[in-house]
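Worked example

This section walks through a single chain of length 182. The input is the sequence exactly as stored; nothing has been trimmed or padded.
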Amino acid sequence: MQVTGAEFDAKDVPDGALHLAVYQIRKADLPRLEGLDRVKIRSLELRWVSMPDLTVIPLPETLETLLVWQSPKLKRLDGLEQAQGLRQLTWQDNGPLEDADALAKLPDLKVLRLEGGMNKRQKLASLDVLNRLALEELVLGGVAPHSLDVAPILTLDGLKRISILGSDLDIASMAVLAARFP
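Given that input, the structure is written out below as tokens.
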């Protein structure tokens, strides 16, 4: 099911629906999102979110997979901790990620994808939060800046798959990661 924030009504989500896509969420649409946290979906896609974080979006407790994309005003993951069962997060083509500490409050998070968009890098302030996660898969696609410290990635002992594509990471950092995760 796909709706805009202006069209969303929790009562309209069919029983048994597993996936929901909500596009164009403006401040004026926030009252319409009431009840979203009670919808029993496993997968949610949010696009064009006009807020700086997720604290005002009621995330379903049953949520396992979240895709947040093309939301240039989104700069923090605050509010993400509402989805305690979240296992997979894709953060793609959003504003510069200034604060990702909310990730550390998600005990079931196993897959993290941080990706840029078409001809646009996903800027990250830091990767420090990674050393507090039990990830099994990490994807860094088109991330910047090249000066990111990759040391937190090296602490991910449970990592089974790592993919770094089109990133601005410097060659020395890439060599360290290649040696650690052959």
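What to look for: The first strand starts at residue 2 and ends at 4.
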